[in-house]
Amino acid sequence: MGEERQEIHGDNPWPAHYTYVPAMRVGRMVWLAGTTGTDDHGQITAPGDIAEQTRQIFRKFEKLLNAVGGSCNDIVETTDYFTTTENYKATSTVRKEFFTTARPASAGVLVSGLLRQHALIEIKAVAVLRNDPL
Description:
By secondary structure, the chain is of the alpha+beta class. It has a single domain, classed as CATH 3.30.1330.40. It has two helices and six strands. Strands 1-2-3-6-4-5 form a six-stranded mixed β-sheet, covered by helices on one side. The chain is globular. The chain starts with a strand and ends in a 6-residue tail after the last strand. The mean pLDDT is 93.
């Protein structure tokens, strides 16, 4: 018998017509969907600023993980899709703000564009919670 899946939506209602969820938990593992630096209305929070967009992504991840008793320190892997290498190094400073006790494995992929207009970076992640499943 497999473990139950738990959709994680955060504070905002998730549109029923979407074909994905922001995060999915199975046991102690959480998969965080590809996320851009948008606000609650779907607008990019800092057009032209890859560091601030990265910060907004990790704020969103933190909220989702907090909802199931975790934090960004539980993230074990990230994949960054970015459209520019200009100031990309600044994203490492932002990562250190959120990964205070452990660093995840990571890959960076330079892409020609992202679906969200003005998005410079999209990140997906996998976390392993330290607490027992619900």
